[in-house]
TrEMBL record:
GO terms for molecular function: coenzyme F420 binding; oxidoreductase activity, acting on the CH-CH group of donors. This is Pyridoxamine 5'-phosphate oxidase N-terminal domain-containing protein. It holds the Pfam family PNPOx_N. The lineage of its organism: Bacteria, Bacillati, Actinomycetota, Actinomycetes, Streptosporangiales. NCBIfam families: Rv1155_F420. InterPro entries: F420-binding_dom_put, F420H2_bilvrd_red/Heme_oxyg, Pyridox_Oxase_N, Split_barrel_FMN-bd. Keywords: Oxidoreductase. Transmembrane segments: none annotated. GO terms for cellular component: cytosol. The keyword Disulfide bond does not apply.
Amino acid sequence: MGKLNDDAKELLNQPIHGWVTTLRPDGSLHSTVVWVAVDGDDVIFNTAVGRAKERHLRANPQVSLSVLDPKDAFHLVSVSGVGELELEGADEVIDGLAKKYLGVETYPYRQPGEQRVTVRIRPEQVIYSAGS
């Protein structure tokens, strides 16, 4: 099992966008940009029920998430593992991410009837580079 060191957590806690990769039903890769946070030793991001990421993870929970420091192209962290979908507390998570990335108290892009879901990655593999 992989483990995030304190430096990797510090990078993930910065308001830097991450790239998450899931597997489509045909086995091809699907990558999208996400807001990222650390919760204990886990990495989390948030999406909405019915979106591609959520559908893919329900069918195959394998997921990878990477963050690259915009000030140093060799300072990065990449985490892969199983994505666990959590409905409880997901609205609070997206609001916290909106504060981190936008500086606002509540997520401004919520759609009527949208149900948020948090994806929790318990790291199985971690790649960390401290940079140049």
